Amino acid sequence: MLRDDSGAEVRDAYFVSDSTGITAETLGNALLANFPGARFRRHTVPFVDSVDGARAVIGDLRVSPAGAAPIVFTTVKSAQILAEFHASGAVVIDLLGGHLRELEASLGSAASEQLGQYHGVGDMERYFARMRAVEYAIEHDDGQSMRALDIADVIIIAPSRCGKTPTTMYLALQYGLLVANYPLTDDDFPSDGLPATVERFASKCFGLTTTPLRLSQVRHERRPDTVYSSLAQCTLEIRRAEDLYRRNRVPFLNSSTKSVEEMSAVIMQSMRLRS
Amino acid sequence: MLRDDSGAEVRDAYFVSDSTGITAETLGNALLANFPGARFRRHTVPFVDSVDGARAVIGDLRVSPAGAAPIVFTTVKSAQILAEFHASGAVVIDLLGGHLRELEASLGSAASEQLGQYHGVGDMERYFARMRAVEYAIEHDDGQSMRALDIADVIIIAPSRCGKTPTTMYLALQYGLLVANYPLTDDDFPSDGLPATVERFASKCFGLTTTPLRLSQVRHERRPDTVYSSLAQCTLEIRRAEDLYRRNRVPFLNSSTKSVEEMSAVIMQSMRLRS
């Protein structure tokens, strides 16, 4: 039996999909997060779309399994493939099957037998939108370009290292939103107004802040033992930024205890960017 | 009753979460994709973490509902909040509840009562890894920098507009991988070898290709009616790129019918970048 450093038992968790594995992984991890005392060795296996593919995975999960029966989280729809996993001795969590039956009952129609239909016109449009959004985000990262700020869906402003860049990229890639971000530096103070570049677009601005300690830690990662990463400088910059947000009625959030996904969700809700 | 342009009945689908809504949205959409004949009006409602919050959503879903009873896909764990939705007349698809019971039985322990515990040390590390990866991807987009290519996890090479940038960003943001991408241009031919810049890192290279027609369409979006977007030029560039991949044993895939997520999954599997 495999144990981790603390002596806790480790179990294998497989995320098995007939497509990318992203849904199985996302939901499987959301479920496992409810068992903070347990330890898992995670495996994602995408593109399992045949009985042979399933048997290869089952062969793998039988070789030196960690702990008790492996847990298989799966979004596979094929009854034949599911039967292979059920017969393997693994604990099978069928993430879609039961819910599909519920939906069939509610909608009064049968679920399609085909695998993920991705490639319609809507998907081509979505692809273009994401591509444009990612390129827009790269062009407008860290105040690099002022071109076409008028078409931005949101302009994220914050001192350096408060999380502008990853949040910008997540909003672009996941939702196809046009997001620019602009750093607040010492040059922007002591003016009471927003930086001249973004002032015209005040209603699109969203601010990020964090705690001085967290900012100092994050900056220390990049440039250890500098004024830039000192607690004094971080405290000053955050106080100034928050004052600026308040004076100019820019909505803002504290990124220190939030994931990129959480920040993105808050920003979309606050700026009414949810469809 | 709301109908779409084709006269099909439209129903409301709500993705309701006590956190970001990403899991509810991902799985809910994966389920709805199995009913290609049905039409849905989608709403994502994050941060529903109180009975009052639930009642606000229920008030909303009762105002001019599209079609029959709305469908609520939810990842909310609170029994009280779930009871509100069950009493509302909506069809409730509880995405986590049943699976949590299955897991409890298999693990022999009860699910934690707390909401999403995100903010441990592991999450801070994951945050740093993603931030570094996104910055690396921006720095190395489209061959802009040759610095630190030796630490890249993968270098994506392809002619312009084959999908390098969004795929790079997805791998960085979702998986914290260090991904550079490098464009194949006319300058790189007629050499038989890989471009000098990436030649030393041949084992890290992964190629993208597409169909000439699709490439021409995508390029036309950017620069209509140019040599660059002509079918002849696209055909030539793709043939050369595929020859280059084959000669240099660079694995490659055709992006024309794949989503960014699918391409990322194939690349990770091919380059053995899955944990």
Automatic annotation (TrEMBL), chains A, B:
A Pfam family of this chain: Kinase-PPPase
EC identifiers of the protein: 2.7.11.33, 2.7.4.28
Alphabetized UniProt keyword annotations: Kinase, Nucleotide-binding, Serine/threonine-protein kinase, Transferase
Binding site for ADP: A158, P159, S160, R161, C162, G163, K164, T165
GO molecular function terms noted in the UniProt entry: kinase activity
Catalysed reactions, semicolon-separated: [pyruvate, water dikinase] + ADP = [pyruvate, water dikinase]-phosphate + AMP + H(+); [pyruvate, water dikinase]-phosphate + phosphate + H(+) = [pyruvate, water dikinase] + diphosphate
Role of this protein: Bifunctional serine/threonine kinase and phosphorylase involved in the regulation of the phosphoenolpyruvate synthase (PEPS) by catalyzing its phosphorylation/dephosphorylation.
Recorded family membership: Belongs to the pyruvate, phosphate/water dikinase regulatory protein family. PSRP subfamily.
UniProt name for this protein: Putative phosphoenolpyruvate synthase regulatory protein
Annotated source species: Microbacterium aurugineum
Source taxonomy: Bacteria, Bacillati, Actinomycetota, Actinomycetes, Micrococcales
